[in-house]
């Protein structure tokens, strides 16, 4: 795809086009996606992934995957593996090997020494409390550390001693010497290195000092020849520090940072820390619980990579923050599945129907399309027998006006089959309806009945030729538009108690005995459902509801 063949997708793309046409940027465009492996990726990360890989693709460049791994205590191999899988599943390929900021620890250490030698960094012995006090605040300038003018030789020796393990956690730090009166707090002699006796998932116990994010990131970008370092708006105030680092060392390349707005979705939490809490405290069944806004949770629920990429395209990329309606994400998956999902019938709450005029032991095979608008998807066989199941909700004894389903002495068509009329309601000893006795009209396969009109069309399965299934009806995890907005409250108070309804004993047509694992099905009249391979076993199929056919929340929102 050539960059000038069509309109820019977003402001970053236009910016790069301008840089190229004015000659400010020459050569390849190189971006990176830099997750910290301290949790699983969520839908917010998808925005950043689509942007970084998308920009590289648009300009025929490259995008790296780099783990920003400077906090060993919070990180793990499990997260690294999950993140790699998620990026690939979304359909993106990073350039070359996976990279780690920890690959550059030696180089970063070298640049720290360079800063010390230039008199631009010093070892400071203030305690954390003292440092906070010396730092001042937005109204008052900070004060210089008493160690600020420590001679270069002494700084070099102390920094080496920090590395050699001669000091304890928190005893000393290395700081940049910038400006304690700067209105930008990030420039008030920020910490570059701290002591941390922690085993690192990549470097083991090689280091007991670790560089801070703000020092690591620009250097890692430069080491990889990143040209455009795209990050979210909260780093805007860090950009002067990003530039200071690169302007005060001799980097192998000179990347530049550009910020864009984070994705905020209503009814959703997009913070790894908070999502981790939901997992750790058992509010959900793990990071890939289908209710989680994680990429792995969405995958488990039946979201397709295409739908997530379409969603990211729809929301665009801009400078101003804002909140996106989660309904847009649901719209994107419905759009994708509507055109591609195979159709099938599933009776969620089975009610037995006996066709009194259909001979016992007889059956016939109906042939139904897999997709009504796409012949290429082929057909499926659905057996018609004397005993069937329909959904309990599709029958009432006293129908309201305009009832479009079954009622006593009324007729409905069974999807793809015949028209039948209800003649008798059978009850158990407690008065519960346990069966309907109906008559089918043998002249109605594919044609309208003569002399009467059926009420509507309902779905069904044959008793003997259907398979039992459990159904997980998932709904939004939170019932509050911005679950983490109230300062004194706790976001877990807004968990939706009805986010999961489990139905057992549902029945699916027998063409689903070995369900597809690549795409959800549309269960006619019910919604989209994805086979849950990990929860199913030989005796029982489990399906997860990806999304309903229509947005059932839109009306509710308008009412309030
Ligand atoms: P979290 O608060 O969930 O931990 P983070 O920003 O700390 O998010 P990182 O692993 O550091 O998570 O993020 C990797 C990249 O993804 C960063 O460039 C970050 O800016 C971007 N990113 C994270 N959350 C969002 C979001 N909600 N919208 C867009 N980009 C995001
Ligand atoms: Mg982060």
TrEMBL record:
Binding annotation for L-glutamine: 68, 213
Keywords recorded for this protein, A-Z: Aminoacyl-tRNA synthetase, ATP-binding, Cytoplasm, Ligase, Nucleotide-binding, Protein biosynthesis
UniProt cross-references to InterPro entries, sorted A to Z: aa-tRNA-synth_I_CS, Gln-tRNA-synth, Gln/Glu-tRNA_Ligase, Gln_tRNA_ligase_bac, Glu/Gln-tRNA-synth, Glu/Gln-tRNA-synth_Ib_cat-dom, Glu/Gln-tRNA-synth_Ib_codon-bd, Rbsml_bL25/Gln-tRNA_synth_N
Reactions listed under catalytic activity: tRNA(Gln) + L-glutamine + ATP = L-glutaminyl-tRNA(Gln) + AMP + diphosphate
A Pfam family of this chain: tRNA-synt_1c_C2
CDD domains: GlnRS_core
Binding, ATP: 36-38, 232, 262-263
Annotated EC: 6.1.1.18
Domain of life where this protein originates: Bacteria
Segments forming domain Glutamyl/glutaminyl-tRNA synthetase class Ib anti-codon binding: 341-441
Domain called Glutamyl/glutaminyl-tRNA synthetase class Ib catalytic: residue spans: 28-337
GO biological process entries: glutaminyl-tRNA aminoacylation; glutamyl-tRNA aminoacylation
Chain location of the short sequence motif 'KMSKS' region per the record: 269-273
Recorded family membership: Belongs to the class-I aminoacyl-tRNA synthetase family.
UniProt subunit comment: Monomer.
Name the record gives this protein: Glutamine--tRNA ligase
Protein source organism: Marinobacter mobilis
Origin organism lineage: Bacteria, Pseudomonadati, Pseudomonadota, Gammaproteobacteria, Pseudomonadales
Encoding gene per record: glnS
């Amino acid at each position: 795809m050539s960059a000038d063949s069509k309109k820019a997708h977003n402001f970053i793309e236009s910016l790069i086009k301008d840089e190229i046409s004015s000659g400010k940027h020459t050569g390849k465009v190189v971006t990176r996606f830099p997750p910290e492996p301290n949790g699983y990726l969520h839908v917010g990360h998808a925005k950043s992934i689509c942007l970084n890989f998308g920009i590289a693709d648009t300009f025929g460049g490259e995008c790296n995957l780099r783990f920003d791994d400077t906090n060993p205590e919070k990180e793990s191999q499990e997260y690294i593996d999950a993140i790699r899988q998620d990026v690939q599943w979304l359909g993106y390929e990073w350039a070359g090997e996976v990279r780690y900021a920890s690959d550059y620890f030696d180089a970063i250490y070298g640049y720290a020494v360079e800063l010390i030698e230039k008199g631009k960094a010093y070892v400071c012995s203030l305690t954390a409390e003292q440092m906070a006090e010396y730092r001042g605040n937005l109204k008052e300038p900070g004060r210089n550390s008493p160690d600020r003018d420590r001679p270069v030789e002494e700084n070099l020796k102390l920094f080496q001693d920090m590395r050699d393990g001669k000091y304890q956690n928190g005893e000393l730090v290395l700081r940049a010497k910038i400006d304690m009166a700067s209105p930008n707090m990030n420039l008030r002699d920020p910490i570059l290195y701290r002591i941390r006796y922690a085993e690192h998932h990549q470097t083991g116990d090689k280091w007991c000092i670790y560089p801070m994010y703000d020092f690591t990131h620009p250097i890692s970008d430069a080491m990889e020849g990143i040209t455009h370092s795209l990050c979210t708006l909260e780093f805007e105030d860090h950009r002067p520090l990003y530039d200071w680092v690169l302007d005060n060392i001799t980097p192998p390349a000179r990347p530049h940072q550009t910020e864009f707005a984070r994705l905020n979705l209503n009814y959703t939490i997009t913070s790894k820390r908070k999502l981790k809490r939901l997992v750790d405290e058992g509010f959900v069944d793990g990071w890939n619980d289908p209710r989680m806004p994680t990429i792995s949770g969405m995958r488990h629920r039946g979201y397709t990579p295409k739908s997530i990429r379409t969603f990211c395209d729809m929301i665009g990329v801009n400078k101003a923050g804002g909140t996106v309606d989660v309904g847009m994400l649901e719209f994107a998956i419905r759009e994708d599945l509507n055109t591609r999902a195979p159709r099938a019938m599933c009776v969620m709450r089975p009610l037995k129907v006996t066709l009194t005029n259909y001979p016992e032991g007889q059956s016939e095979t109906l042939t139904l399309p897999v997709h009504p608008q796409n012949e290429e998807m082929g057909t499926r066989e659905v057996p018609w027998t004397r005993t069937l199941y329909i959904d309990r909700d599709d029958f009432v004894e006293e129908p309201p006006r305009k009832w479009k389903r079954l009622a006593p002495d009324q007729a409905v068509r069974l999807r793809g089959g015949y028209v039948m009329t209800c003649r008798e309601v059978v009850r158990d000893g407690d008065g519960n309806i346990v069966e309907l006795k109906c008559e089918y009209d043998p002249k109605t396969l594919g044609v309208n009945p003569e002399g009467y009109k059926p009420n509507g069309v309902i779905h069904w399965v044959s008793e003997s030729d259907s398979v039992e299934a459990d159904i997980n009806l998932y709904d939004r995890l939170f019932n509050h538009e911005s679950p983490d907005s109230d300062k004194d409250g706790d976001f877990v108070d807004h968990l939706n108690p009805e986010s999961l309804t489990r139905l057992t004993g549902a029945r699916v047509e027998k063409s689903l005995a070995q369900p597809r694992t690549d795409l959800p099905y549309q269960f006619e009249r019910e919604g989209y459902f994805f086979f849950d391979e990990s929860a199913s076993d030989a005796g029982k199929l489990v399906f997860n509801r990806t999304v309903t056919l229509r947005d059932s929340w839109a009306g509710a929102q308008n009412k309030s």
